[in-house]
Amino acid sequence: MSFISLVVKNPFRNKTRSSLAIVGIAIGIMVIVALGMITGGLKTSTQSTLKAGSAEITVIQAGSSGSGGFGSGSINQSRVADVQKLSGVKDAAGTLRASYDLQGSNSSSSSGSPGGGLPSMGFSITGINSDKLSLAGVDSVNGTAFTNGSVNEIIVGKTAAQDLNKTVGDTVNLYGKDFKITGIFETGSFMTDSGAFMSLETLQNLTNNQNKVSSIAVKINDNANTTEVSKTIQDAYPNELNTTTAAAQESRINQGLSFIDTASWAISLLAIFIGGVGVINTMIMSVYERTREIGVLKAVGWKDRRILGMILGESIVLTLIAAVVGTVVAVVGVEVLLSVSTFGTVIQPSFSLDIFLRAFGVAFLVGIIGGLYPAYRASRLAPTEALRYE
To answer: What b/e sequence results for 97-133 when a residue is b if at least 16 CB atoms lie within 10 Å of its CB, and e otherwise?
Structure first.
C-alpha cells in the first residue's frame, strides 16, 4: 500500500467517530458557503444598479427617509422641470411608486400619497414617462415600452414575469383594471426586475396623486460633479427637497451586508475552534489505538517526520471531506430554499470562487490545527515502548 493510500484509508478505520467529526466540521463550512452565496448575490445586484445611463442622483422630499421609495412623501410635479433647469443637470424624470396586492386584495398604497403610511408588501409599480425609462436603469425592453398618457399598458421585469408566468401580450389585473404587458425588461437589479413600470399619468390617476411624484431621478452632465449638483439642488429648494446619490445608496446597502460578512467570518473562527477540538479528539484516539502499529512502523525505519506527515495527512483528509460535504449541502440547500420561498424571485445566489476557496481554506486550517498535536505525539513515540503497548 502506498503512503498516500494509507493516509486516505486510515481515518475510516473507525467510521462512526470519523463520520461525527466530518459532520461537525461540515456544519460550519455549510454556513460559511451559504452566507457567502447569499451576500455575494445581494452585492452583485446592488452594484448592477449603478449601471451607465441611469440616474446618479435621486431627489426626495425633505424630511423623508429612503430614496424616494414607499412612504417617502410627495413632491409637486412642477419641480421636475425646475430641477432640470439647474446647473449641471442633464436630464430629470419624476417617478411615482406604489404597491399593489396581487393576491386579490384591492388595497394599495403609494409613496406619493400625502400623509400615507407605510405600504404592505406587494407588487411594486413605478410610474414614469416612457421616454425617461433609461434614468430608472431600463435601457432595453423585449417588446415595446408603454404609451404615455392614461392608458392601460405596462412593462414588467424579467423576475416578475417569471413569478407571474406572464409574457408579452398577456394581461395583469391592477386596481380592478386589466393592463396589457407590452414589454419585459431586465436591469440586473433584483428589486427593479421584480416590479413593473407604467405611464406616470396612469399611476397618478389610479392612486389619486394627480401632479404628484415620489421622487425625481436626475442625470448629471458628463463633466459635472455629483456632490456639487446635489448641493445645488438642495440649496435651490431648502427645507423642501433632499438628495441622495446612487453611490451613497450602494454604500449603505453594502454596510449592512458587511455585518453579514463579519458574521460569516465569526462563524469561520467558531468552525475552526469547534472543528479543531473534534479533530484533535478523533486523531488522539486514533493514535492511542494504533500505538503498536506506529511502533512497528518506526521499528522498520519510518522517520519521525514521516509519522508526523501521516497523522497530519489523515487529519487534513477528514477536514477536506467535510469541506466537500458542507459545500454540497450549502449549494443544494440554498437552491432549494430559494426555489420554495418568495426570496427566490429577488435573490440570485453567487457562485464566486472566493467563497469556495474560503471554505476549503478554513477546512485545511482546521485539519492542520486539529492534527498537529496528535501528529507530534505520534512522532515522538519510542519504538520499544510503542511495541510493548497493549
So the answer is: bbbbeeeeeeebbbbbbeebeebeebbbbbbbbbebb
Q: Distance of CA 257 to CAs 10, 42, 263, Å?
A: 42, 8, 10
Q: Which backbone phi and psi does 42 adopt, to 5 degrees?
A: -65, -40
Mean pLDDT of 254-269: 75
CA 199 to chain centre: 31
**CA–CA separation, 129 vs 126, rounded Å?**
10
pTM reported for the whole predicted model: 0.61
Ordered by start, the domain boundaries in the chain are 3-47+252-388, 63-238
pLDDT tens, residue by residue, 206-250: 988 888 999 999 998 888 888 889 899 999 998 888 888 766 766
β partners of residue 134: none
Q: How far apart are alpha carbons 209 and 112 in whole angstroms?
A: 7
Query: Among the listed ranges 51-55, 263-267, 284-288, which one has the minimum average pLDDT value?
Result: 51-55
What 8-state DSSP symbol labels residue 130? G
What is the DSSP-derived secondary structure letter of residue 184? E
Burial of 380 (0-12, 13-18, 19+ CB in 10 A): exposed
Alpha-carbon distance 144 to 140, whole Å? 9
Half-sphere exposure of 305 (CA within 13 A, CB side): 0
Please tell me the number of Cα atoms within 13 Å of 65 on its side-chain side. 4
Which of 123, 82, 91 is CA-nearest to residue 206? 123
Under 8 Å between Cβ of 386 and 295: yes
Q: pLDDT tens digit string along 133-164?
A: 988 888 889 999 999 987 899 999 988 898 88
Q: Which residue has the cell 404609451?
A: 147
